[in-house]
Structures
1.
Amino acid sequence: MTDQTVPSPPLSGPPVSRWWGCFPELRRDTLGFLVHCQAYGDVVKLPMGLVVNLLLRQRDAAMYVLNHPTDVKHVLVTNQDKYRKAPVPPVESRIFGQGVLHTEGETHHRQRRLLLPFFHGNHVTAYTDLITCKTYDLIGHWQDGTTVDIEREMAYLTLSVIWRLLFGRDTGPEANTIREAIAVGQSLIKLQYDSLLASFTPLWVPTTLRRRFNNSFRAMEAMIHRSIHERRMATHQHDDVLALLLATRDTEGRPLKDEEIRDELMTFLLAGHETTANALTWTWFLLSQFRSIRERLTHELHEVLGDRLPTIADVPRLRYAKMVWEESLRLYPPAWSLHTRVAQAEDQLPSGARLPSGAWVFISPWNLHRNPRWFPDPNRFDPERFSEEATRNRLPFTYIPFGAGGRRCLGESFAELEGLLILATVASRFRLHLVEGQTIQPEPVMTLRPNVSVKMIVQRIDSQEPHPVVA
Ligand code: HEM
């Protein structure tokens, strides 16, 4: 809603290049630059520069970083119909196609209505045993005192879980193909972030990286198409996402095309494991740095589980584990930035700022979660921030690791359960120590991942060893 009579305060922002706008600064240190922007007010204007103005044929093209939760709510919830996701760069468009992540309007509503029940309620809790057993299998291979690449371990684990949800069977050698395709995809996307030229170059322009991407991606697509084809031939019933998609009919009774099914499966495959794996990796990293927190967690797990694997009935009692998980998602939100939204018409935000039609709105969980106005001493790892009382007293929309509104994460309930169960299963049996000499920094690409592989030494928690007592 706009009101011409309400004066809008002028928006400020850090100085940027006339030609290249905010991009050199964003490229140099994306996360640091975002936090730096907090000093310029609730809404920070970042001009995109003359080159982008020319490319977009738009005068004064700018990004607007939202620092205030009331404005965040306005864009994501109250006035969400007035905003759309910005067009996606070629690599992402090739990966996700017309899956639920990138569609808009009625198509998007229909896709969400179809998929939401699968990722909620009993349907989610039914996967408890699958998650704990897969985790137990993984740590069964860990030898006391050896070193593991924890990001890799978590990625293969969460991949094996989502694969079962989608296709109702275990992964085999496919897992390597998928991880290879994702690694190449991430490198290409990083290149797009780092170079304006790369983000405007069509995918068919041949470079070594693009060729590798096209090859590995074709292999991954072929696997998905093969699974669709085999299932169409199958005679017995399945209860997985593929079965749901194959049974779907549009308003005229027509089934989904293979391409539509492929796009949904690809979206869930990628959105549904990389994020959770990153969140867990950061959780292990943080726990390795804070011994007292790790010991309190071990104590709770010992009290609640003893030597058992967690069941769904244990979940409400794993209170501290949940606080650790939530605080880890605050400090290292895998979705460090939401997809940029574009204002479809001029709009006035609750803070008073007036956004022009076509404004690119940038909402970053990383930035909101590290703002000292909402989280004092924001860089400190402190699970107490998620005690019941602290959570009750916090302003809504300051903590949004899963987004908000009509595009809130479809897999949120599943990810919460999966994260908690994996954390509890592993931490009740192993302590993870960071191998010394590594400098781990967050790298914002499609997800917020560590800049190097995180090597950790796994130490079995000896059942004979007394569990730490917490005062
Ligand atoms: C810790 C793990 C996860 C985090 C932090 C996370 C975060 C998010 C966020 C922030 C969004 C909204 C993006 C935006 O508004 O621009 C989103 C969307 C989405 N997520 Fe997740 N996610 C996680 C796990 C999962 C899992 C396990 C699945 C699937 C099983 C999933 C499926 C999706 C889908 C399909 C969307 C698109 C929803 C839509 O546009 O309607 N996510 N996720």
2.
Amino acid sequence: MDMRQSAEDEAFRETVQAYFREEYPRDIIAKLANGQTLKKSDMVASEQALSARGWLAPGWPAEYGGPGWTITQRFIFDEELERAGAPNVSPMGLLYVAPVIYTFGTPEQKDRWLGDILSARTFWAQGYSEPEAGSDLASLRTRAVLDGDHYIVDGEKIWTSDAHYADWIFCLVRTEDAPRKQDGITFLCIDMATPGVEVVPIITIDGGHHLNRVVFDNVRVPVENRIGDEGKGWTYARHLLSYERTSYAHVAAKRRQIEDMKRLLADAPWAEGDAGQQDDVRHRLAAVEVQLDALEMTVLRALAPLAAGQAPGDEASIIKIAATETAQAITELFVELAGLHALPKFPDRSGPDWRAGLEAIPAFAAPATAAYFLARAQTIYGGATEIQKNIIARQLGL
Ligand SMILES: Cc1cc2nc3c(=O)[nH]c(=O)nc-3n(C[C@H](O)[C@H](O)[C@H](O)COP(=O)(O)OP(=O)(O)OC[C@H]3O[C@@H](n4cnc5c(N)ncnc54)[C@H](O)[C@@H]3O)c2cc1C
């Protein structure tokens, strides 16, 4: 597809830039720039600001409240949001479940859920993985048994991102033991306030609370919360995953990180005689930048089916691998730069007041280390790299 930008696209870019400069909440951008993590109230404020402008769901069809942008405008918007240093939206409602609801849901379900997602009144979680069903997702055992006009749900989901923030969770549940395990799976939307739903925190290696176990004990879910046909959940789940895997690119945010790294590298307090180390870091930074250029081209190529109104194809797997490996390479370099900056300032520990010297260590070092640890998960969630490679190999007929 032709990605050259027209005069209208340039004017659109300026409108978006002006919005993030003048209207979007400055305190949220300032918090992120200061290395702070955002709370749910910050995410709500961010998403309600975008919603008030009609810009919260660029990918949704106009009939459901999308802004009716071209694919180029959507690309420009994502780029400018990240360039401005604003947070990406919480994806589970807006990017993952919404396309399933507007593609496969009933008119009542669309009325009931899409408006609340679009106005940032409700947040969602994704209940796919279970303790014995991650890569092999179709082995899931959370069971839903029909009882009149309700399903009774029992089981456990794990690694559920932001379930502690969520009002709703979309779940894959087993309604039948079919010979082919992908059959007999049903897609259910569950109100997190339903009696019997328990959220148990999991603290990750970066020290943060992002993940949870979600336990369902005798949870009554109305049948009208089922998306599509009973037993056909696998089809809807795959549709959702193609949107999920395409959403990981975040090219402009990575570009910003690389620009930050160039500044840090220029300011690094090199010791005498370490030219070899300097060359090594510069070489690796250049390699990451080339990797990012390749990712950007791949994303642009993958936009073509979206422009034609189709769901992303298996190229989503290529983007998933390229995006997450680039993210990890960037976080590795940040940690190395933190070392370069911090080591010369690391205090002499022979005196009792050695901790005073720690204040001289640059502020970016601790968040960089936390980001490095958290980014290890990127090649696992949304389907591990090995699983993406299996999908690509199948596509190539290998
Ligand atoms: C930070 C984070 C956030 C997450 N958020 C969510 C969420 O919100 N909702 C949700 O439902 N899930 C979520 N997950 C779960 C995630 O999708 C799973 O962790 C992932 O699918 C891998 O499953 P697993 O952990 O069971 O590992 P396993 O499937 O046990 O895999 C272990 C290893 O074996 C490899 N492997 C497995 N099968 C194959 C195969 N066939 N061929 C080659 N190699 C194979 C894998 O690549 C991996 O290296 C999250 C995970 C993390 C880490």
